[in-house]
Amino acid sequence: EKGGYDHFMLKEIFEQPTSIYDCLRGRLDANAGSITLSGIEQHADKIINANRIIIIACGTSWHAGLTAEYIIEELCRINVEVEYASEFRYRNPIINEGDVILAISQSGETADTLVAIENAKSKGATILGVVNVVGSSIARASHAGVYTHAGPEIGVASTKAFTAQLTVLTMIALKLAYVKGTLSMHRYRELLKELDSVPEKVAWILNHQKSIKRIAEKYKDAHSFLYLGRGYNFPIALEGALKLKEISYIHAEGYPAAEMKHGPIALVDENLPVVFVATKDTYHEKILSNMQEIKARKGKLIAVVTEGDEVASKLCDDVLVVPEADEIIAPLLNVIPLQLLSYYIGVAKGYDVDKPRNLAKSVTVE
Ligand code: M6R
């Protein structure tokens, strides 16, 4: 059942070149320059003219939603807000008919997300679902949607469902940008090609993971970790921290790197591992200076860096290398080494990584 892997989580991490490919298949045609998403096409005018898109989700799916906020606002210039379903459903939010709700859920059964969209639907909002489980409650409650086609996810920690969500959300952003005309044809085509190359790049990362096990051994006894990122990689820092908490029971906090000096930097000493998501993008110089600030305080520096980036690598105690990619696509790649890091730390500590204590695969109670 585990296909020769020790755990479902590892199997699912290694399935990602295939699950992302399955998600793109029949939808993205990079050569023809087209994206086919019938659920989105039916409502395209409504979405591009929406007052705002409100993304609703929980946990890892919320992190996919936060990444999508950055991507959709950049590519489509549509106002996006991201809410925890549990907050949204109880706080009497202002919803108008021109609002579009985008619900993201692996299981399609998360109670808070389901009730949140039902409330919004009763106020006239259009509901789009990005769901993995076909025919699930959230899929049925949505007006339209896009399935993530990641296949069954057994491990309680979400891995391949997350990258499939990011893949779908990036395709949605590109489709909307195309319809709205907010991207040059050159940039649009370039991003389609970038997205098309993701399965191959994910496979490259998985083939270069040998050092991650050693890094996991080295830091497994730390009491706490900080995960930092900026821009598109800020949600990836949050996701890296959540994965570590779930699997290894080590306290971890994700933070925007620039917020560090507004408080968390007080935690930094020679015992604190700080994981930066520091691939080459618009924010690169700024994140390098954040890394220097940690180093000056003797924190242990671990970073996800772009292959060949000697400057970032030299600053670090340990690096997790990923291939070069456009910054819009990078989150999809950068999360992979962080999934592996938490997996190997959990295993090194002897925990049941497929069924972490206190957690359920889908949270069907509030
Ligand atoms: O099935 P959903 O995507 O709606 O689930 C949302 C969260 O419960 C889920 O992502 C949770 O945070 C996972 N344990 C993350 O690994």
TrEMBL record:
Substrates-to-products reaction catalysed: D-fructose 6-phosphate + L-glutamine = D-glucosamine 6-phosphate + L-glutamate
Cellular compartment(s): Cytoplasm
Keywords for this protein: Aminotransferase, Cytoplasm, Glutamine amidotransferase, Repeat, Transferase
Major enzyme class: transferase
Main location: cytoplasm
Domain SIS: 43-182, 215-356
Top-rank taxon, per record: Bacteria
GO MF annotations in UniProt: glutamine-fructose-6-phosphate transaminase (isomerizing) activity
Catalytic residues of the enzyme: K361 (for fru-6p isomerization activity)
EC number: 2.6.1.16
Subunit structure: Homodimer.
Its job: Catalyzes the first step in hexosamine metabolism, converting fructose-6P into glucosamine-6P using glutamine as a nitrogen source.
Listed name of the protein: Glutamine--fructose-6-phosphate aminotransferase [isomerizing]
Organism: Mycovorax composti
Full-protein positions shown: 247 to 612 of 612
